[in-house]
Amino acid sequence: MDYNYADYSKHYIIDALFKLMEDSDFKDITVSDIAKKAGVGRATFYRYFSSKEDVIRFFFERTCSEFAGEQIYRPRCKEDYIDIIKRVIRYIKNHKCRLQALVAARLEYIYTDFVDTALNKHFIDDSSNDNLYTASGYAGAISNITLRWIKRDCADDENSVIAAFAEVCLGNSFPS
Hints:
Number of helices: 9
Strand content: under 5%
Oligomer: single chain
Distance between the termini: 38 Å
Number of strands: 0
Shape: globular
Radius of gyration: 17 Å
Low-confidence stretches: none
Helix content: over 70%
């Protein structure tokens, strides 16, 4: 995949924000701080983002696109959905520092809103399932289960987290 200047600038801005969040409160970080850390000007920041929160939203959108791009089949059964849940859990564990930074900054709502929007879009795109209340229910389960796991430093066994997803979202127990 070829990347252009905009892709690199967005990448550096995202990285800069999360690095700054390691040492500073989100509310104290300025756009100038982010631009300086990213090696871009304020104008470049505002060309791509209208706020610090937009940087985080874009991080989730980009992550979701990458995740979807890696999906090689359309889930058709519970086992397929469990495979997706496993991938989500692995991703969260690999990126827990960024998600923990959001929790520390009390920005969980951005994550929760993103999950809800993404699942509702999936349900709208899937002609066989148009119940957006169900999508929001799944989104709530995903958000709450993953946030609890993140707050516990992803220390709990992954299979117990996957089992919780399977029970709540798929209506069955997951074999250990």
